Give the backbone structure.
Amino acid sequence: MVPHSNNSNSQYASIIERNIEALLAQRKDEESKKTKEESTADRITRFTGSMLFVYIHLGLFSLWIIWNLNFLGRPFLCCTGYVCFRGSHILIHFCFDQPKQNGCSGGEKS
């Protein structure tokens, strides 16, 4: 194996730095071109994908289950319906966000 000289290492470092700057500029350009709806959808997706969102739901479902165990004859009927609704809601978010993850938008034709 041939050792690299400091000159070639600094050359690679400058190339990598230039590429990072180009990617950041491209991302900034794409962010500035987003519509209000796209920006709102990105914020919602970012929040619903966060651990804070998971902790809030864990707390709310735990309190709901504890409360329903004491007061209702069939405590999980409403809970089951709500969980199904939330599941479909999260699935919709996933399906809308998936094309972005793959690097294409929903409006483009292949």
Observations:
- The CA atoms of residues 49 and 60 lie 17 Å apart.
- The chain has two domains: 1-33, 36-110.
